[in-house]
Structure formats: structure tokens, C-alpha cells
Amino acid sequence: MVSRWLLGVFVLNGVVGAAGAVDARRGEFGTLADGRKVESAELTNSRGMSVRILALGGVIQQLMASDRNGKVADVVLGYATAQQYLDQPQYFGATVGRYANRIAAGKFKLDGKQYQLETNDGPNHLHGGTRGFDKVLWKIDSVSSGSPAKAVLSYVSADGEGGYPGKLEVTATYTLNDKNELAIEYRATTDKPTIVNITNHSYFNLAGEDTPVDVFGHRMTLFASQYTPVNQTLIPTGERRSVAGTAFDFRQPQTIGARIRQGSDDQLHIGRGYDHNYIVDGEPGQLRPAARVEDPQSGRVLELLASAPGVQFYSGNFLDATSVGKSRRVYRQGDGFCLEPQVFPDSPNRSDFPNARLNPGQTYVNTMVLRFSTAPQAS
Ligand code: BGC
User: Pick from 232, 165, 164, 170: which is nearest to 198 by CA?
Assistant: First the structure.
């Protein structure tokens, strides 16, 4: 890509913008087996960071970030073709909803009425069912260069879709600035009382998707003093357990792999690793630090700021070498980690968990910021 600077104005492949502006463009990613075209939006800043978003599922298909020597790599897992996102169940980079995570037995009650959702994960409902927000074509409403650059996607989920009540109008706004901050904001409104929990399901590998390195050596900090332990089917038991003295304590940086095989902790056995909701310290509704992850080799650092009450930390436990990614990498357990800001799993069935209810006239908002930087080599 050729860029040249002219009196504080830069010309980038024919696009003229103010200095510091981030370039945005629309494109076409590919075609699904049934002939539908999948549009894309790409935001690129002047520091080597870029993100490619697909109209299919609002998927983050590619996220390029520099290492401490300026070498750029794709730091998210994903597929080379659009159809694979429909065929394979891992939710790589996807927008998940209407209800991200699990609802016990797919059942919940609202104003005395019982609802039954699809049970697509053993006995439970997971990530909105087999045709959740990750499997539908969103509309790309706008793509604009600037500071920050912005892509706005929308989707209207009909009343009753997936078994959920209410017509839900959803937007997903992605912005990228020149400080290497990618912000994602989900908003939704409804015409009937309903439940909502929308998040992004990117699997990160800060070493790069095209390396044979897993994420067990990444050093993670989670700003969370408690988490919600789960039963055998990964539904929270209701307990809010202190992380102190357990393999779940990431309040000080620890490698993801250091304690993941600690079978004395039943929770790691049930989840086949980490697959748990952490209760983020601080005030829910406020954007606050949720996590910091550093790859000591490349120096890439990801900081996550989140407004949601919880973050699901999933260490890619169910990646079982059955899928092949963008760079022809066979994905194995631990090849990526997810940090999914959200309300707690099964909240609709627990009055003491954060509220997942949305009424007409209210706006659901879930905001997260992924900030990329680099750290120097440890001496
Ligand atoms: C869940 C995992 C699940 C994965 C599916 C995560 O959000 O916590 O249990 O296997 O999504 O890709």
C-alpha cells in the first residue's frame, strides 16, 4: 500500500484524509455455497493495525497487529472462506446472540410465561442456538474513514426468532483509531420484553495465527477477584467464588498454561481447562480494565476494557484438530483464547445475577475496547 504525505494530508491508494485518519473501505469477502455474497469492511490505521469484518455474523475475520519489532501478524483464528463459518461450530470472531453463553435446559421465564429455546449444547442452549447471530447476514449500514474509522452493521431479529420473544433491532459498531484501539459496541432495542446478551467471540493468539505456537505461554492478568463455578454441563451453580489461592487467580500476571492441568481443581476438569465467567472488578456499565494479555516472545500486548459485568475466559478447550484455519494451521486445544464480555451465563434463571432483561423503550449496550501495544523483551 503506497502512502505519501502532503502538507499534513495523506493520500492512500487514492483516498485523501486528514493526518491521523484511519482508512476504511468496503469489499467483498466471498460467496456462500447458496450463492449469497458476503460483504466486508476493512479498517486500517497508520501503525500497521487493521481489522476485517464480515457481514456474515459480524465476524472479525482478520486482525493485524505489530510485534515489538514492527512485524505485523494476524492475531485471531478464523477461516479463509465464508462457507466454513457456517459449517463449523467454533464461533471464530463472531457476534454471538441473542444470548451468548448457556441457558440451562434452554428454559427461562419472563412475566410468568415459560420460553423454550433450542438445546444445542448437550441439555443446554448455547450462543443463541444453531442459527444465532453468527450465522446470519448482517447489513453493512456504513463504512467511514476518519479518526476513528467506523463500520456499522445491523441486524433485525424477528419476533420469535430462535424462540426468543420480541423483535430485536441490533447494531454492531466497530471503530479503529490511531492509538491501536479497536472498540466494539453492541446496541439493541425490542418491541416486547425479552432477554439479550451479545458479545464478540474472537479467539486470540498473539504469537500469530500462522505460527505453530499455542497460547499457554501468554501471560494473562484478569481484573477479577471472583468467578462463577459451574456444574457438569457448564451452567453456573450460583456461587460467586473467590479466585484467591486457586488456579483461577490471574490478578497477578500468570501464564495461561501454568496451572491449566491442575486436576485437583475440579473446575478445570469440568471445563477441560478455563471456560468460566469471571466477575470483573469495578462498576458494571462503566468501561473498566478487564484483562491484559502479553505474549513474551513477540511482545504483543492485548488489553481489554469492558462495560459488561462478566467476562467469559475460554482457553480454546474444544479445539480438537478437526478444523483448518486461514493459514492452513490445524487448530488444536489451546491454540487461541477468548475473552467474551457479557452478563453471566444462565442469568435469566438467577435473580441474583446481573439482569439480562430488555424492555421496550430501553437500549441494551455492551461496549468493549481491544487495545494493542507491545512490551519490551524481559531482561
Ligand atoms: C463457551 C465454550 C464453547 C465455545 C464454543 C465458549 O464461549 O464458553 O464452552 O465450547 O464458546 O465455541
Answer: 170
The residue whose CA has the least distance to atom 10 of ligand 1 is 318
CA 216 – ligand 1 centroid, Å: 18
- Give yes or no for residue 161 CB within 6 A of ligand 1: no
pLDDT exceeds 80 at position 32: yes
Contact 74, 210 (CB under 8 A): yes
Q: Does the pLDDT value for residue 20 go beyond 90?
A: no
- Please give the angle made by the CA atoms of 132, 365 and 271, to the nearest 5 degrees: 50
For residue 169, pLDDT over 50 is answered with yes
For the chain, what's the residue count? 379
The answer, as to whether pTM is greater than 0.85, is yes
Task: Examine the pLDDT at 347 and tell me if it is beyond 60.
Answer: yes
In short, whether 312's Cβ falls inside 6 Å of ligand 1 is: yes
C-alpha 314 to ligand 1 mean position (Å): 7
**CA nearest ligand 1 atom 9, residue:** 275
